Amino acid sequence: MTLSTKRLKTAFFSALLVIAVAYPVMGLKLSTVGIKLEVHGASPTVLWTIAACAVAMFVWQLFRHHLAAGWAASPSLPSIPAGAGGFLTLPSTQRWIILGLVIVALVWPFFGSRGAVDIATLILIYVMLGLGLNIVVGLAGLLDLGYVGFYAVGAYSYALLSHYYGLGFWVCLPIAGMMAALFGFLLGFPVLRLRGDYLAIVTLGFGEIIRILLRNLTGITGGPNGISNIEKPSLFGLSFERRAAEGMQTFHEYFGIAYNSTYKVVFLYLIALLLVLLTLFVINRLLRMPIGRAWEALREDEIACRALGMNPTVIKLSAFTLGACFAGFAGSFFAARQGLVSPESFTFIESAIILAIVVLGGMGSQLGIILAAVVMILLPELAREFNEYRMLMFGVLMVLMMIWRPQGLLPMQRPHLELKP
Amino acid sequence: MSRAILDVDGLSMRFGGLLAVNGVSLNIQEKQVVSMIGPNGAGKTTVFNCLTGFYRPTSGTILLDGQPIQGLSGHMIARQGVVRTFQNVRLFKDMTAVENLLVAQHRHLNTNFLAGLFKTPAFRRSEREAMAHAAHWLEQVNLTDVANRPAGTLAYGQQRRLEIARCMMTRPRILMLDEPAAGLNPRETEDLKALIALLRNEYNVTVLLIEHDMHLVMSISDHIYVINQGTPLADGTPEQIRTHPDVIKAYLGEA
């Protein structure tokens, strides 16, 4: 008897909770009349829906134990066999999948629409950022919440060099990478003796400092307006604009074809793809290098590392610097693509999205990060009408992931070095 | 008498109001096996932590080959050839046995970024040598057949042996073992004894060891230090310690 009263109580309060939450959020509408706000009741349909939801919740809470029992009795759904999951996370399999993805990525811009290629370019920027942050978070185990700061450093490096000295994209790309790496090194030096949460908070602060600095150095960076009219990348001196700047030739004139603005978009896409491939190559080598092993060892046991004569600070710093370097590359490409940089592109939410990509994909996993970047960037683009609910969707996605796959979409199996008999 | 490789004088370590180590002096000759014994909580591990740079001693000098090393950080001391194991095994559990040994060689490898990126011949050679060195030691500690298994899945005795092998990868001069026989069965303890003898005789390693297994300590040590409540109680050869009245009273019990 007591059990059923308890259930009744739970069900009643659950239903009450539904009303308490749903009525103020959906049942009341604020509308602006002149300069005043007025509260109106919602339409009867909405109110009836809320009531129906409350009743449904009541019934569900009351009978879910029976349902759960029935569920368990019914034959279980065919799930992915364990072997397939293990197979998918094998480094060799992931390599082949990545190779396949690369081939698809190389071919499809020549068939896809202009808008689609543009979004794909954006996705590739986030893939690059995700892979870069993955070095810091996934491989070295350092939680960095200010990663966007290095992205900003890269973007502004190119923007400023282009604006003040008229340097081209290809010259600035390595410089931007190096500048970001330098910032990573300088910021990392005092910070990396901290651990875990403390490190996260300090890096968060550094990310914000860089952004606020960029906004307030009005004389150099143009303050909140940023820098506009940044030169686009060229192909061996060939410009993709309709009319070339002085001393330059345009792509369509050189090849004697009609001007088409799609060429520029596809060209930018291919540069982004090239940068991603470079990143993938470097990370794959790093995993098989002594430094990659040292990162993993350090993540597992810092004290043992010290006892073996490894300097933890240097090893962490190398991860931090390398990660920052890739953010710098991504940043300078971002500046070149947008033609405009402003501090508002580098807010904390960007760091959060990049970190979400890494966590969603599975820490340390490269294929996972590519998939997660596609999901995280494509989803809001596809569901533009639900733009207001974007954060809500991210939240739901995160909760579902935590329940369904806490280890990420495709967690990494590190390539193990084997002792051959 | 040969030259002292490690000369510790008046080592003290104070944690707030607690004087954990009080004026401990050690004199360790090259290629000796020296044991430190004492009841639980006597401060033996604290001495180890001071010697290996995990604690900064409050006072006292530590001379390695005549050079002061007190106050250096842990990894710097390890680089000078003083390497330790831990009371609770500290392997990299998710890495395979052979990878544990490769990581330990980090300092001796070609860590040049570009060399690794482009797999230069020098880089390949360095990796190959590291693998050969690791394979050699896996064989020495009899772990070749589990080389590719994650270290965390090995049996306890195997983990202990792997940890010693991992220390040997750094090419140490002094090896400090913190209770290496804890949790081992008599058979494994015999193997350990043979291993320590091998390290000393074949690889010219000086061994400093903390151990509670009196049988092991008495049979293997050249010299024994007894510590009680942070203060040195006695030192001497196993024979002298066995018959030392204070030691019998404090530690071995009236027999």
TrEMBL record, chain A:
Cellular component GO terms held in the UniProt record: plasma membrane
Subcellular location: Cell inner membrane
Domain annotation High-affinity branched-chain amino acid transport system permease LivHM N-terminal: ranges: 6-108
Alphabetic keyword roster: Cell membrane, Membrane, Transmembrane, Transmembrane helix
Keyword Ligase part of the UniProt annotation: no
GO MF term set: branched-chain amino acid transmembrane transporter activity
Membrane spanning residue stretches: 46-63, 70-90, 96-112, 119-143, 163-189, 266-287, 314-336, 348-379, 391-407
Domain of life: Bacteria
Matching Pfam families: BPD_transp_2 (PF02653), DUF3382 (PF11862)
Keyword check for Membrane: yes
Membrane topology, record value: Multi-pass membrane protein
PANTHER family documented for this protein: HIGH-AFFINITY BRANCHED-CHAIN AMINO ACID TRANSPORT SYSTEM PERMEASE, HIGH-AFFINITY BRANCHED-CHAIN AMINO ACID TRANSPORT SYSTEM PERMEASE PROTEIN LIVM
Full protein name: High-affinity branched-chain amino acid ABC transporter permease LivM
From TrEMBL, chain B:
Biological processes, Gene Ontology terms: D-alanine transmembrane transport; L-alanine transport; L-isoleucine import across plasma membrane; L-valine import across plasma membrane
Keyword Transport: yes
Keyword terms: Amino-acid transport, ATP-binding, Nucleotide-binding, Transport
CDD domains referenced in this protein's UniProt entry, alphabetically: ABC_Mj1267_LivG_branched (cd03219)
Cellular-component GO terms for this entry: plasma membrane
Family annotation (PROSITE patterns): ABC_TRANSPORTER_1 (PS00211), ABC_TRANSPORTER_2 (PS50893)
Residue stretches making up the ABC transporter domain: 6-254
Protein family per UniProt: Belongs to the ABC transporter superfamily.
Protein name listed in UniProt: ABC transporter ATP-binding protein
Species: Pseudomonas mangiferae
